[in-house]
Amino acid sequence: MRARVSWTLVLAAYLAFPSFQRERVEEMGYGQIFRIKRMRVDPALTQALRSRWDAEASAFAFPWGHMIPSLEDVSRITWLRVYGRAVSGYTYPCYHDLAERLLDLLVERRSSLVPRVALQESLGLFEAGKNAGESEDEYLARLARVSQRELASEPGPQADLDLRRFLVLFLGRLLFATRGDAVHCRFLPLLEDLGEVGGYARGAAFLAHQFDGLSASERQTSTSGFYPFLQVWAYLHLQFLRRGDLTRSGLVPIACRWDSRRDTRHLVDQLERLQEVIDSYPYLDVVWQPYLGEGDEGQPWLVQARPYFGRSVWLHSLNLVLPLNLFLTQRSMGLRQSVVEFPVRDRFHRPGRSFRGLHDTTDWRERAREPIENWERKGKGVR
Fold first, then answer.
1. How far is residue 377's CA from residue 375's CA, in Å, rounded to a whole number?
2. How many C-beta atoms lie closer than 10 Å to residue 307's C-beta?
3. Domain edges within the chain
């Protein structure tokens, strides 16, 4: 529920902006994400996916093999830019001076967090609570009206201040959300020059953040960040789960087309049923190419990024550097024989993890020519 409320608050501030500010957000590459319908949260699906996450391999371990969200998934589903400058740089133990200069907000000494309430109020979001009997649309419209009174109506220093505050709220409470109430300042140094914001590969950083959240403590059942991404990813690739409804066709980003299916059963019952379905469905029911027929219009970075869609790469998000192990998925599923392999450290062999430890990619092209049947005879292929 907190993720849905954060989405409503960020969307209200975006709608309250005058047209020139919304145009700046569009130029930065974030405009399309605000066209996504406020999707219903599906905690059962999130927990089912999270329980399948293999932190050692940084991929989902399903009975049929490994699967992992890709850069193309991020671009198609969210419309975030996946090609550009790496979101890399320093993180600081204290952002007091930088927050005071760029946000005109108080951050405690030796702290990296902006108080959420103070940040919301700086954007005019004073009464963030929903009134009794108020519909979602009425709630959103009221927040936008109140916020509009506090925002600059003309370009200038105050408008730049409003935009940075909005971006910190958007990045810290929605796109790169973390557990807890405060908003982290780690992206603030990259917002000093607003003209450079649109050149960063935020989609790649977003994917790194998703992987980091999935690899957090096993006691956590939810994930942080922009929750519609993983839900729509499952709707597209694991359609046999029947958790999503395709309510609109032809819209972009693809997340605009989907909504989560309402399920009135108890969460425990939903989760048990999902696990049973995942365990019993065959390999052929997985959708491997959900974007056939989709064009590249409006996403020039797709052409630039396409050479990286089929490769194992490193994803950067400031102090996070995490692997996108597409080769592991491809070999695990028998789709290709190019792979970055990982050792098995536990006492049992999960499907798709029966490879010897290897992190040298110099000779994979030779091994790729070997027929899949040979790997299966040797006990190294998909069961």
1. 5
2. 9
3. 2-285, 325-383
* Token output for 347: 């006492």
Place of tokens 């408008």: 159
Distance CA 312, CA 309 (A): 8
Euclidean distance between CA atoms 130 and 295, whole angstroms: 40
Amino acid at 160: D
The packing angle between helices 43-51 and 228-237, to 10°, is 70
The Cα–Cα gap between 241 and 261 comes to 11
Q: Which of 6, 17, 183, 173 is nearest to 103 (CA)?
A: 183
Strands in the chain per DSSP E: 53-54, 59-62, 65-67, 113-114, 183-184, 244-246, 258-260, 313-317, 320-324
* Per-residue tokens: 125: 């979001």
Two structure tokens written together for 324: 């996108």
Write down the pTM of the prediction.
0.83
Residue 10 CB contacts under 8 Å (≥ 6 apart), including other chains? 166, 169, 170, 173, 174
> Over its length of 383 residues, how does the chain's per-residue pLDDT go in tens digits?
456 678 889 999 999 999 999 999 999 999 999 998 778 889 999 999 999 999 888 999 998 889 999 999 999 999 999 999 999 888 888 899 999 999 999 888 888 889 888 999 999 998 778 888 889 889 999 999 999 999 999 999 999 999 999 999 999 988 998 776 778 899 999 999 999 999 999 999 999 999 998 987 555 555 667 889 999 999 999 999 999 999 998 899 999 999 999 999 999 999 999 999 999 876 667 888 899 888 888 888 888 898 888 889 999 998 889 999 988 887 787 764 433 343 444 433 334 333 222 233 333 334 333 443 443 444 443 33
**Beta-bridge partner residues of 142:** none
Residue carrying structure tokens 């991404």: 229
Backbone CA torsion sign across 266, 271, 272, 278: positive
For residue 202, give the DSSP letter: H
User: In which residue are the tokens 């990045």 written?
Assistant: 171
**Separation between Cα atoms, residue 83 and residue 204, nearest integer Å:** 8
**In this structure, which amino acid lies at residue 325?**
N
DSSP state of 31: G
